[in-house]
Amino acid sequence: MRKAYELGWANACSFGGCRPSLVAVDDILFQKPVEIGSLLMLSSQVCYTQGKYIQVRVHSEVFDPLTQQHSTTNIFHYTFTSDRDVPSIVPKTYGESMLYLDGKRHFNQTVES
């Protein structure tokens, strides 16, 4: 969980151009356990922005080198705020559009709470 947060923070920092502050962590769903010694692969995307807010999605998966299989273990959603307005996200593909809509939904749930 800490590595996912650090990756999400670094991505928000890179995208926003300054050190972001964490506003919210959305529900964390553990889909599969991560065994000790597993090869854990993390990827992070800025999926939605609004004003000074940055919504980041971190995808966590385990890689099994024997079977060459990847298995999703967790998906984390973090909301950060920046000191300045951040660029808007413009999805270019269907996949990016789906991530954008999912990020917007998570952001709206955070703001309503």
From TrEMBL:
Is Hydrolase given among the entry's keywords?
A: yes
Give residue ranges for domain HotDog ACOT-type: 1-86
> What InterPro entries does its record include?
HOTDOG_ACOT, HotDog_dom_sf
Membrane-spanning residues where? Answer: none
**What does the UniProt keyword field contain?**
Hydrolase, Repeat, Serine esterase, Transit peptide
Name the CDD domains for this protein: BFIT_BACH
**PANTHER family cross-referenced by the UniProt entry:** ACYL-COA THIOESTERASE, ACYL-COENZYME A THIOESTERASE 9, MITOCHONDRIAL
Q: Which family does it belong to?
A: Belongs to the acyl coenzyme A hydrolase family.
Official protein name in the record: Acyl-coenzyme A thioesterase 10, mitochondrial
Q: Which organism is it from?
A: Goodea atripinnis
